# Entry
Amino acid sequence: MNRYHFRLVDHERALDVTGRPVDDRDQALAVAKRLAIDIAESRQEYLGKGYAVAVLDEAGNEIHRESIDSAEKSG
# Structure
């Protein structure tokens, strides 16, 4: 099982970091989408300001960025 890290980011600045073991990259992307939807629903102050959930692999490389604004529209 791999460990991916999820960051709430404002363009390049990390505001919050959490790690979670998941089976693979696809599952990590699904977790990021769910986090973005949850933030869009519960933290309205982040909407319209360019916030996103960044997904980092075990080496610390960013592999995906899920926009909170897009999650709010599609969630």
Observations:
- The longest strand covers residues 13-22.
